Amino acid sequence: MPRSNTSGPSQRMLRVGEQVRHALSDLLQRGEVRDDLIETAVISVSEVRMSPDLKIATAFVAPLGAADDAAVVEALNRHARFIRGRMSPALRQMKYMPEFRFRLDTSYDNFQKINDLLHSPEVARDLRHDDENEE
Predict the structure, then answer these.
(1) So what's the pLDDT on residue 7?
(2) Alpha-carbon distance 75 to 36, whole Å?
(3) What is the average pLDDT across 50-75?
(4) Percent of the chain at pLDDT above 70?
(5) Side-by-side strand order, sheet with 42-50
(6) Handedness of CA 47, 19, 57, 49 (dihedral sign)
(7) DSSP code, position 92
(8) What angle do CA 113, 115, 120 make, to 5 degrees?
(9) What tens digit of pLDDT does each residue of 6-33 get?
(10) Three-state DSSP class for residue 49
(11) What are the φ and ψ backbone dihedral angles of 29, each rounded to 5 degrees?
(12) pTM recorded for the entire structure
């Protein structure tokens, strides 16, 4: 099968990443990881990126209601081996169980910055000026 010239993830990597995301979300929702930081925060798993060989899963998480987001991500990384073991039944179709790495998801902050920029007076002025020229 010929490989495409794009540097993006393959369909297989995307599909497996989505399966891992669902299984990880279920695991965290059930509260199987016993850690005060993890138990007190609602953790949103926004994306899981798989390595090309599917042996490393990088999960982007956003802790909601936590005082220190970085501490929650650090706690998840400390419990990565336990999480890997608990994920085995949900991902039994995989040949190798991936190693988990957790990263803080900053995409929500980026979306907010873009939204603030689009609603700034300077952009609104420019858009209003363009609408007047079209008429």
Answers:
(1) 74
(2) 9
(3) 91
(4) 90
(5) 42-50, 56-64, 99-104
(6) negative
(7) T
(8) 95
(9) 678 889 999 999 999 999 999 999 988 8
(10) strand
(11) -70, -35
(12) 0.75
